[in-house]
Each structure stands twice: as C-alpha cells, then as structure tokens.
Amino acid sequence: MEDLRTGTRAVPGSPVGTSSPSGPLLHPFGGLRYAQRVTGPLWRLLAPPHTEIDKARRADLLASSPYVVTHLERPEYGHDTRQREVNRWLEAGALEQDAPGLYVVRQHGTTGTRHFLVGALEVLPHDPRVRPHEGVFEQAVDARLERLERTGVDSEPVLLVDSDPWPLEWRHPEHVGQLLSSAFDQDGNPLLEVWQLRDPDVVRALARASAKHRFLIADGHHRHAAVQRSAVRRGRAERLLVAVADDTTEPVDLQPLHRVLPREAAERVVERAHHRRPVLLTTVEDIARVAGGLPPDQALVLLPDRAVVVEGAPTTGPAVGSGAWVDDAVRAGGTAAEDVRYLRELSEVRAAVGDRAAILLPRTDLAALQVLVREGRLLGRKTTSFRPKPLAGAVLRLR
Questions:
Q1: Predicted pLDDT of residue 110
Q2: Angle 11-257-265 (CA atoms, 0-180°, nearest 5)?
Q3: Global pTM?
Q4: Closest CA to 362 of 317, 310, 314, 316
Q5: 105, 197 in Cβ contact below 8 A?
Q6: Is residue 104 classed exposed, middle or buried when 0-12, 13-18 and 19+ CB atoms within 10 A define those classes?
C-alpha cells in the first residue's frame, strides 16, 4: 500500500539557493532507438505512459514482444534480473545509439498531430525554472529513484509544458532536422516520426534559449522528484529525459482526474465536509454542468442514490484545491490506494457509479495553474490529466 500521507508534500532537503540558476535547461544527448530489423516493427514496441496502463494491459504488453518498452519500466519486468535489460538489448543489437542531438517527435492521434521537443533536462537540487503542479509521496519518490538506478534507462520522457517563445520553429523538423524513424499502426496509419536536430547552430540556439524558459511539469512528477533527490544527495546536477509541449502553438488539453472509489469512502468525504449541498442530477449533461461550475475548493460526490456538492476546510499549507482534502479524507478512513481509480471522462465515471461511488474534481485552466505554481502552491496528487502525452519507446536515454 502506498504511504497514507497527503499527496501534496514537496520533496524534502532541496536547498533554496541565494542565486537563481541561469544555464541551459535542455541538453543534447545520444538517444537509444529500436533497430527494427532485430525487434520488428516499431508500433508493436511502443506503449502509453506507464501511469495509464492497468494490470491487464501491462500483462498483455509484456507478453506481446520481448522488446516492448514496458520491459524497461521495472527491473523485474526484464528477462534476467542479474543484468540490466537495456544492456542486454544493446548487446543483442536491438537498440542503437545515436550521435548526440535534440529530437522532435511528431505524434499522430485521433485529436490531431502533436510535436514534442525531446532532450536531457538539467536537474539541479533547486531550480525555480522547472516547477511541479502536483504533490508527491515521499515513499514513492524513493521507490522511483531505486527503479531508475536499477534499470539504468529513461524509458519514457517526463512531460513538460512550455509557454515561452523559441528562436526557431522546431515544430517543422523537416527544415532543421533529419528523419530517423517512423511508425505506422497495424492498419497502416501514421503513428509517429522521430527527427533528430544535429546541426550545432540549431542545437546551440535551442539550448541557450531554454535557459530563460519556465517549464511546468505536466506528467512524471515522481520521476523528476526522484532525480532531483539524487542531485541533492550527490551535490551535483543530474539529467532526465523530457518531452516539451509548446502550448503557445499547440495548446494542451487539461482536464481534472476524478475518483471512483468504494461507496463507504465517498460517504466519509461527505461526512467530513464543512459544507454540503444536495443536487439533483439525472443525466451526464447534468453532471457535466454542475461539475463544470465547481469552484476550486469544492467537489461533486456521486453516490448511487444521490449527489452532493461538498466543500472542505480552508487549507493552510501549500496544498490548494479540493483534490488534496478529498484524498486526505479518503486515506484517513483507511481506503487502500488500489481501491481508488482515476478517470477523466465523465461518461466513464457515471458508468462506474453503482456498487461504487465517484468524486468529481473542478476543472482548472493552464494560465491559472501557472499562476498557482509561481506562488509556490500545489494541487493534490493525481488531480489533473494533460493530453496528449508522448508514447514511451520512441527515444530512450541511458542513465
């Protein structure tokens, strides 16, 4: 079971320096990519971010190919725990290492095409230019750090959202880069392309520009916190694989993550609320209307026989929003982490309410979220969902 403390704690031990870092945040690196003549087609080896894969899907992926990227997620998913799986793949010729550069991944999906600038992030013990927006569990941070050290590879990038201008248009990599690999799905539809930016002038311009950017961590808080903890312990900078999404040119989709949980746990949230307001809801449209109008400190509890808008006590720490106090109430009642599901689609949430209940969180926009983090505040753990997210396996990074 996960640590039962609130999900809004910051990583301890990060010293606050007297001067702000000023060097580049993004660095080129020699990425690892699949040698498809050995591994088979790329589309069979990619995977969604590990946080979006349930147990059944993970088992299917692991069984689908000895080289699917999911094998690199944990050391126990490898074929020989005495040897790092990434090293075994390198020796077998399943992975090839590129010359150093930055990358652009062009990812196609049902909602359109998204571009990610992929590089190695400079992770310092303290750097206000890279900010989380959700809390983390300290126990999970230590577990993630151990996992990274044992696997020896960044198998998927941390997603960063950026709202600052760049000196050149990297979203058109055909003008500044070289196509290295492409993936098509089983029906022949384009899935993604991997481009590398190697021109020294291009790489230098982007790296220098990154020094003045302000990145918001959208997905991968525990991985970033783990590498930052390593930087604190070692007293030096570390590196981490990241994918940057430019919200100024391709706006991100930001939605709340709702909770589906045992009915008894939802009843406890209603009991612990400082204010309660019953509401009459009969359709998904009714639910969307009420949920869409929730202020940051309220939540909508859906029980099989009724619905209640609840509000918790005013917060005094760094945590803001209803997600933090809702999760505190759930965990205080002894609900196990594995008994709570996190869904973003209202139709799925409504369908799950029967023998279980749901708690819907309010929506926030990116501008408000950026203001919040600049003030040093955090939302609760797993309260937001950014889309689209980069697939794991397009480019890997040795640690």
A1: 87
A2: 90
A3: 0.92
A4: 310
A5: no
A6: buried
